[in-house]
Amino acid sequence: RAIEYFQQRIWYGGSTEEPDTVRATKTGDFYDLSTGINDDDPIKFVMGTGQVATIQWLKSARGLAVGTDGREIIMGDPLSRDSITPLNPKMSAETGFGACHIAPVYAGMAAVFVAAGQRQVREFSPVIYQDRYEAYDLTRFAAHITRDFATSADRILKGNALQVKPLQVVWYPRADGILCWKDTATTEKVL
């Protein structure tokens, strides 16, 4: 379901057989998935969130961001930038909103993702001067984008794409064919 390159390893997550497990190859050897205890050995780690949370996406940044259907998680230590190892995966469940299967895009230091239910866009970003992340609701002042209050019809988001030039914009096609957008000036934290 999810694949990402991070710290010279290929990371996999959300398989049918192990929906709440991440695996990573041996450092520098993208074909070796055998497990071990040396720092450069392949990694297998079950997300310990208290429930089976299916991994929806992986995104590399200061740490490895993991979006599940119930939580947003950071693996690694963003402050020290030490490598993730088989004996020290350094997992931290940061927020509990949940994500859908649509891979996030990066806008500055934030992973902008479509939340579970496909009716919210959230910005998963570090909180400055604090050792934590937050997932701000970018659609809180624009509920009409994903909900038709006259007919109670859902307008779910079906994907996303990042446009870099001439302005940075994230595009979101809806199921009804309408194309919505969000500029990536994230200081206001709204869509």
Question: In short, what is this structure?
Answer:
The protein is 0% helix and 39% strand.
Mean pLDDT: 87
* Helix/strand/pairing category: mainly beta
Helix content: under 10%
Give the biggest sheet. 4 strands, antiparallel
Spell the H/E element sequence.
EEEEEEEEEEEEEEEEE
Describe the structure.
With 191 residues, the protein is mostly beta strands. It has no helices and 17 strands. It is elongated. The two termini are 27 Å apart.
Top keywords for this entry?
191 residues; mainly beta; four-stranded antiparallel β-sheet
How do the strands and helices of this protein lay out in sequence?
Layout: E1 2-6, E2 9-13, E3 21-24, E4 43-46, E5 55-60, E6 64-68, E7 72-75, E8 91-95, E9 105-107, E10 110-114, E11 121-126, E12 133-137, E13 147-148, E14 153-154, E15 161-163, E16 169-173, E17 179-183
Antiparallel strand pairs: 1-2, 2-3, 3-4, 5-6, 6-7, 7-8, 9-10, 10-11, 11-12, 13-14, 15-16, 16-17
